[in-house]
Amino acid sequence: MANPIASSVLGVAGFDTKAAVSGLLSFDKLAxxxxxxxxxxxxAKQSAFTAINDAMLAFKSTALSMADSAxxxxxxxxxxxxxxxxxxxxxxxxxxxxxxxxxxxxIIVQQVAQAQRLSSGQGVxxxxxxxxxxxxxxxxxxxxxxxxxxxxxxxxxDSLQDIANKINQKNTGSSGTGVSASIIKVASNxxxxxxxSDKTGATGFTLTGAALDAGGGLANLQLGSxxxxxxxxxxxxxxxxxxxxxLSIFRSSNVISDALNGxxxxxxxxxxxxxxxxxxxxxxxxRNNVQSFVDxxxxxxxxxxxxxxxxxxxxxxxxxxxxxxxxxIQTTLSSSLLQTIPGLASDRNSMVSVxxxxxxxxxxxxxxxxxxxxxxxxxxxxxxxxxxxxxxSNQQVQFLTSGLxxxxxxxxxxxxxxxxxxxxxxxxxxxxxxxxxxxxxxVTVTDAASQSQAIVNLTAGMGQxxxxxxxxxxxxKQTTEKHELSGSLGTGLTVSNSLSSLGLGIAAGDTxxxxxxxxxxxxxxxxFSVLDPATDNISTLLSAIQSTFNQKVVASLDSATGKIQVSxxxxxxxxxxxxxxxxxxxxxxxxxxxxxxxxxxxxVTAIAQGNGISIQxxxxxxxxxxxxxQSVNGLGIANQNASGQSVVGxxxxxxxxxxxxxxMGQSGNIDGFGVLYTGNxxxxxxxxxxxxGLAARMESILDLFANPFTGxxxxxx
Length: 717
Fold this sequence. Notes:
- The chain is α+β, with helices and mostly antiparallel strands.
- It is 23% helix and 30% strand.
- An eight-stranded antiparallel sheet has the order 18-39-20-35-36-37-38-19.
- A hairpin with a 2-residue loop joins β11 and β12 (247-251).
- It is extended, with a radius of gyration of 38 Å.
- The protein starts with a helix and ends with a helix.
- The relative contact order is 0.13.
């Protein structure tokens, strides 16, 4: 479309059309130039805001690392030996946690712990007395022996390696034997079975069974307890022995973490040399951390102050000088540094009082004279200025944590319901001390959350002490899930039997599907194809099952029944399931059945209560809920569901959430404020005075400005 202005002046003599059009367009160019300048200014503002925001986030990270009282200190340990020829570092290592207490200790490593190891005697022979020349040679022996409480059955086709595998299969999960087996070739005709405890300590393990001794079916294994077929003791199990400040202590491990509070000793070798250990707060680390806080603060204030700087030559200030949020940042940060912290002594209740001082421009510096006095004599004073610290008027109310926006002050804790554990008890008339159970009975305790069960068989004649022992022994057990497929491959088989020997028409190329679920309930799937039925054996099939489950199960064959069994590799609650499809000749593996449910130890315990007993949850609140069912009520406890209760209460009149004994604010300025109440009384149980230290206070302030989603700076950007 033609320009109407230009069209209207066409043909008019002496009129400069080009100049007129250019003049009109200059107004558009001016608008464009102004828009471009505004865009440039806005981009510059965004960049300046981003730089300040990044500095505040870095400051917040520094503050967070210094806000936790349990992690505030680092510790250093200096070790010196009184024997210059024996360096302290060759005797032991030391590590410390925030719970360590500073001090000096004298340590002598008198004995290091070692694990028990034993082996078969020289020249293991088969049942005919011929020394075997291979760990894979069948020994033609039968018999049973025990490694600890685990029974190991040996059949005629077993080799030394088969026996080692059977021992290792019993060492799976948390309920394993703790004994590992291996074969060592000493010479061409000298193969030995070696058993080693997985842990150090004098307790070691036991190897028993009449079949191992002279005249027994397994005598030629050379693992007997006496001549002429005695086992070799390669290494005796020993406890560690260490003297600390003249007191000898014994532990089964060379890593000792419970002798000195917060200190872990790792013993390396025994020697009469005395090690002097001086452990103290790492003042260098503390000084550096405080300096990092000061530097991070100064960077934020420096960036903000630079925006208010007036250039005398141009009369201009920073591009953000007119932004009100910068004034808020400047005043909020500086004023927060000057506040005193409730609950602290007047000579150490502020940043300035411990030697961290702002100058006239708000720049922080460390006054070495004042700061060094505290760092040398009482570093906890510096800690208390930085962290959130609460003191309670009642020892049964323990301050745990402050909320992000919880101000310093006093908080009233009101409890309307104290926490309790789930519990059932014998009736007052029940007497299991002077009398005993008249009849045998089965007690079943079921955890309400996991539905795990402890089934305890009590026998007639048991009294209070033996009943408690039986109940707690079962409650503390961790069991491993074990499954069995109902179909039998045939009795009297071993894992070395070839697939063709089963007589079920299995041919090369036959394929079956392996499926099921792992312990977490996730689906697994794989397959097994026969390459050569004459060489593929049951062991090959079992390996395929284990591979499908990513080696998280142990597959085995019950030789007595010919059924395949699959056990979880770990103890505890399990959703394991197994299915083997048809496809190998006429072999039918049958359906999956659970031989033993896997479970963790139960969260309940049995205690004496008068002449009766009480079964109660170990924790407070609903997490301890359980039910009890008895075949006969010989304990004086009715079959019932037992429920625990969580604490119910308020903090400063605001309703708080109870979880067990923990009372936690969830709204307003108490959001995140938590206390632990261990008492039974109700009403106004305590006043908690909380002082929010510098680091803890800065965390909430910086979040207000620099939160990446809701922060005031992000809103401006």
